[in-house]
Amino acid sequence: MSFIDYYKVLEVTKTATEAEIKKSYRKLARKLHPDLNPNDDNAKAKFQELNEANEVLSDPEKRKKYDQYGKDWKHADEFEKHKQYQQSNNQGNSGNFNDQDFSSYFESMFGNSSGGRQRSSSFKGQDYASEIRLNLLDILIEQKQTLTVNGRKIRITIPAGVENGQTIKIKGQGGEGVNNGPKGDLYISFVIENNTPFKREGNNLYNTVTIDLYKAVLGGEITVDTLSSKVKLTIPPGTQNGVKVKLKGKGMPVYKESDKFGDMIITYSIQIPTNLTEKQKELFTELSKS
Q1: Which end of the chain is more exposed for a tag (fewer CB within 10 A), N or C?
Q2: In this structure, are 161 and 245 located in the same domain?
Q3: 200 beta partners
Q4: What does residue 227 show for φ and ψ, rounded to 5 degrees?
């Protein structure tokens, strides 16, 4: 297995933060996706390599192993166990495990180019990563989508109410295992674009509704939009600027709980009239004197 510089693949430095890695991956995933490069015969391989690099560097534990062991990072745990075993059997020596020992250990365990002995150890297959972009209105109900991952079509169910930035794992939909080892998993990240006038915070939605001064003072009725319908609200006389009203159950569906919904919070903003006529000014003046 040749060495792949995952940092170079993701176009980041070795000191890159998790946020920088995530940002670079998203940018490159959009650029290198096979569907957007139909004339590039190597598009699938490039995209797979990008996903592999992100799967390793976005996981602090895997990244630590990769930084220490390079292409053999997947076998770091076996190496550490062997190292501890050797140290426990060399109490009279220094117990140091050098690069030559490291190389010899992997050759004896996984084979070498000269046809050395090989143990039939099994390992889990490579995990894959993919991204799905949806609008806020798309996740009001459960839906099904078919993804193409490394040439395979995978049909998945997307629960209603999935969060922006949320990642879900689909077990056994990654790469093939080594020596009958288990398949890897598929990690799907969601990018939810808010195409509504509402602000989302968890399962709740927020909106500001403007009412005129006369309704605020005298009371009345208004109609407001929700995600799925219109709701009529009664404005009590003397309503103050900034008053909040809760519309129970008019928010986002709760993830994996189809019968539960968040709330919608409406904030009233009172609009002060401008360009008053002389008569209106007189009426306001009389009102202020009373």
Answers
A1: C
A2: no
A3: 205
A4: -65, -30
What's the pTM? 0.56
Segment 229-286, tens digit of pLDDT:
999 999 999 999 999 999 999 999 999 887 899 999 999 999 988 888 888 888 878 8
CA-based end-to-end distance of the chain: 89
Count CA within 13 A, CB hemisphere, residue 229.
Answer: 7
- pLDDT exceeds cutoff 70 at 63: yes
Q: Could you give the CA distance from residue 165 to residue 190 in angstroms, rounded to a whole number?
A: 5
Both 142 and 210 in one domain: the answer is no
**How many whole angstroms separate alpha carbon 51 and alpha carbon 58?**
10
Residue 277: domain span:
199-289
84-110 exposure pattern, b = at least 16 Cβ within 10 A, e = fewer: eeeeeeeeeeeeebeeeeeeebbeebb
pLDDT given at position 113: 45
Task: Give the residue, 69 or 56, on which the prediction is more confident.
Answer: 56
What tokens does 48 get? 């797979």
Return d(Cα 234, Cα 215) in angstroms, integer.
10
* 117 occurs within a structural domain: no
* pLDDT given at position 223: 95
Sequence-distant (≥ 6) Cβ neighbours of residue 96 within 8 angstroms: none
